[in-house]
Write a structure and sequence with these properties.
Number of domains: 2
Strand content: 25-35%
Largest sheet: 7 strands, antiparallel
Order of helices and strands: HHHEEEEEEEEEEE
Strand order of the largest sheet: 1-2-11-3-4-9-10
CATH topology of the largest domain: Umud Fragment, subunit A
CATH superfamily of the largest domain: Umud Fragment, subunit A
Structural class: alpha+beta
Helix content: 10-25%
Distance between the termini: 47 Å
Number of strands: 11
Number of helices: 3
CATH class of the largest domain: Mainly Beta
CATH architecture of the largest domain: Ribbon
């Protein structure tokens, strides 16, 4: 009898979530089962994409070749909820309501950051950056990273320094990290 109840349960579940014909899939009858499926799907999408993972379109080449321009990614909004970002982490920074930047953390609070002949120095010592694939000739005077701020830069440094958006960013503006 136990197997019969389980089979009946699966049959009813299939009747609610799997349409019987191709026509019914594309032009369903508006029934309570159909409305229940739509409601469950809407609630799931609102929670999943609104709270946990925000979709983001990557435009621009500042993180190439790590992330390609015009790629799509999900932002894990909980990655830095209970821990602080570390050097080397790729973060998503909220610029305004609709624009977010994807950058790598290179400087932590209290450190001094500078570029000499294209090489990044932290507190006067060169930083090994295996993720930087293109050479650059950036020069930037030493800058102190204030408490509560991080210093972020893109991985693609082959363009002139004036064409990049980088620098210190408040911890409050870091909303998460790319999922992949």
């Amino acid at each position: 009898m136990n197997g019969y109840k389980f089979d009946l349960f699966l049959y009813r579940l299939k009747a609610i979530f799997i349409p019987e014909s191709f026509r019914e899939f594309f032009m369903p009858r508006i029934t309570t089962a159909y409305l229940a499926r739509v409601a469950v799907l809407c609630i799931f999408c609102l929670v999943f994409f609104g709270i946990f993972f925000t979709p983001a379109l990557i435009r621009g080449g500042s993180m190439e070749p790590t992330y390609n321009s015009l790629g799509v990614n999900l932002v894990n909004r909980f990655k830095f909820r209970h821990k602080e970002p570390r050097r080397g982490d790729i973060v998503v920074i909220r610029y305004d309501d609709r624009i977010m930047y994807l950058k790598r953390i290179v400087g932590l609070p209290g450190e001094t950051v500078e570029f000499r002949n294209g090489k990044l120095y932290i507190n006067g010592k060169p930083l090994d950056e295996p993720y930087v694939k293109y050479q650059c000739d950036w020069k930037l005077e030493p800058r102190q990273v204030d408490s509560g701020y991080y210093y972020v830069v893109g991985d693609n440094r082959s363009q002139p320094i004036r064409q990049h958006k980088f620098g210190r960013v408040s911890r409050r503006r870091i909303i998460g990290a790319p999922l992949w």
